[in-house]
Amino acid sequence: MDDLQTLVNEIHQEIAARTERGKVADYIPPLAEVDPAHFGIAVTTVDGQEFVAGDADTPFSIQSVSKVFTLTLALGMVGDRLWNRVGREPSGTPFNSIVQLEREEGKPRNPFINAGAIAVADVLLAGHQPKETIGEIVQFVRFLAGDDSIVIDQRVARSETETGFRNVALAQFMRAFGKLDHPAEHVLGVYFHHCALAMTCRQLSRAGLFLAAGGYNPATGRSVVSRGRARRINALMLTCGHYDGSGDFAYRVGLPGKSGVGGGILVVAPGKASIAVWSPGLNENGNSLLGSQALEMLAQRTGWSIFGA
Ligand code: GLN
Q1: 2-62+198-301: CATH architecture
Q2: For residue range 64-123, what is the model confidence (pLDDT) as tens digits?
Q3: Residue 99: how many CB atoms within 10 A of its CB?
Q4: How many helices (DSSP H) and strands (DSSP E) are in the chain?
Q5: Which residues pair with 151 in a beta bridge?
Q6: What SS3 class is residue 99?
Q7: Is 64-197 CATH 3.40.50.2000?
């Protein structure tokens, strides 16, 4: 599989030459300060090989990519009852939209928009203090990646807590509709902290491998979820993982993916590989501009689309 190493090197070189790099998230200082010149890519195949290029070992803020892991945990806790709390339809709205939430009486469209992830955090809090839930999420991500060095960037978590006014609004709004079981501050504490997880492309692609391999992580030898559940999480990533850019991502890349405002994207090529890319500049939907372009190249050149090679 030398070809795959050649391919990620080529993608790295082509991306490095691009001058239009998008706009780095500036809603909190720690993200605004990140150098837009970074680019990393890591591919972990289901047979355990890794192919990396660029800044694949530099940690970045995974932000909304973490919602895949909290969704997986919540499904493990309450199963299909989760769908009483949150829908599974694409929203067609920005990730932090409030309008739809009012119209739909506080039930978020899907687990990947902010409101949906806040509802998931509320589910994870059942019977726990926020600190315990945060600890469980970190442990789960370490277990998935087989890497105990993964931590939360406390500076990012603090910044989110100090200035996440829109998320406060979303949570309080849901609470007003009777859709949260716990105080908004507790739920947001969990949400802000899991968004602040810092991971490298290599760690992230390892952590997503179970979704490419039918729920089993071949790298760690651990079973994570059933085959059917992995398939469904992938379906949600495809339809909702890029907010109102999900259709375009499916059209261009043709693989389930989840993006974050830190510029990371986790992508699943079922039966083949888990892929993580990172480029901090974002497009108009808040998804990594060059990260999406890199994935488009990878999907085209490998033929790894779920819609046909
Ligand atoms: N922490 C970010 C927010 O709440 C996550 C959003 C994202 O990554 N799209 O706004």
Answers
A1: 3-Layer(aba) Sandwich (3.40)
A2: 999 999 999 999 999 999 999 999 999 998 999 999 999 999 999 999 999 999 999 999
A3: 9
A4: 14, 12
A5: 198
A6: helix
A7: no
Domain with CATH 3.40.710.10 in the chain: 2-62+198-301, 64-197
* Cα atoms in the 13 Å half-sphere on the side-chain side of 280: 18
> Residue 193 and residue 135: Cα distance in Å, rounded?
10
Residue 263 near ligand 1, beta carbon < 6 Å = no
Pocket test for ligand 1, best of 193, 195, 199 (most atoms within 8 A of CB): 195
Q: What count of other Cβ atoms lies within 10 Å of the Cβ of residue 307?
A: 9
Burial of 262 (C-beta count, 10 Å sphere; 0-12/13-18/19+): buried
**Which of the four pLDDT bands, split at 50, 70 and 90, describes residue 219?**
confident
Q: Are 240 and 110 in contact (CB under 8 A)?
A: yes
Q: 69 is written with which tokens? A: 């892991």
Integer angstrom CA distances of residue 33 from 30, 192, 204, 262: 5, 19, 22, 11
Q: Name the residue with tokens 């803020």.
A: 61
**Does the Cβ of 153 fall within 6 Å of ligand 1?**
no
